[in-house]
Amino acid sequence: MISPREVIRHFLTEEVTITPFGSGHIHKTFKVAGRKNFVLQRVNNNVFKQPEIIAQNNRLAYEYLKEKHPGFLFPTTLSGIDGKDLYYDAQGFPWRVFEMIENTFTMDEVASEADAFEAAKGFGSLARNLHGIEVEGFKPTLPRFHDLSWRYEQFTEAWQQAAESTKQAARAEIEQAHSFQFLVTEYQQLIQRGSLVLRVTHNDTKINNILFDSLSRKAVCAIDLDTLMPGYFIYDLGDMVRTFVSPVSEEEKDLSKVRFRESIYRALLDGYLSEMDFVLTDEEKQSIPFAGKMMTYIMALRFLADYLNGNIYYHITYPEQNLVRAANQLKLLQLLQQSVA
Ligand code: GN1
Ligand code: MG
User: Fold this and answer.
1) What are the pLDDT digits (tens) for 269-320?
2) Residue that is last in its domain, among 36, 67, 100
3) CA separation (Å) from 60 to 55, 56, 74, 140, 224?
4) 314 FRET partner, CA 20 to 30 A, in 175, 193, 224, 306?
5) Which residues line ligand 1 (CB under 6 A)?
């Protein structure tokens, strides 16, 4: 990899210290400490094949928010010394820099109802403030990203072409994944009935994509706007359910620790609806119970497919990691299926 120290010179002239930062699965992220602090990121352009679309969508949102909701915090990238937002290194990787938003922190697991409420309100306020923007101007940065039918097909392909030994190792998870196929049908029906409104959604509303204020613990802003694009509200609400309700994250190996916390679920719904209640249609609200199941299922399928494909998509630190993540998500899905109606 080209050294981040070399790359940062294309954005800043001062002396800085660079250290690895964050817990994302896709990009490489660094903290840059100088007179001010910055976040430096090498964009994974194997995943995001057209990083310019990210920039274009973000610009549209930024301009709209600046006009309609001045004061709303929406993190944008810095221009490089050449005036461009993205710097392409000698290996063809795009890099970008954000200003660090100080006196904030992220969490990987939700500890309290108050935190669940705040984080959901944070994502909800982004959705509410973008309500009214022309959706047609936004292009998908990742086509069919949360299309459950397509994710199921991809899982099926991965399963069919995996080596026998890999399939054996994942036998229990594959069987469980098949047993939830009815959710794909439910998804298709929702879409076909036209029950959901196409909106500009965040599409990656996991708990660690909200910055909390270090003192007040209020939500400061949503980060990771790579997948800000047309979508349905269930994608955002569902990924919150997926990452908030269990006391442990998707990385937890001890499945007995994966639990559904009813009071956290209620708090996150309250927080989200405190912003979005008057925006969502009555028909959309009927699909609230489906949201968490759908997004938990989609992540189970994606982790499992990646394991079967030989771990080509998500960063892993040990060989079974994607299988562990899939098992974790399938356990959570079972709990959601029992508890949410
Ligand atoms: C990926 O890179 P990160 O951690 O922000 C993934 C999300 C998953 C998430 C699971 C572009 O997000 O869809 O929910 O991992 N993003 C992409 O932790 O695939
Ligand atoms: Mg992301």
Assistant:
1) 999 999 999 999 999 999 999 999 999 999 999 999 999 999 999 999 999 9
2) 100
3) 9, 6, 12, 13, 16
4) 175
5) 24-26, 47, 204, 206, 224, 250, 299
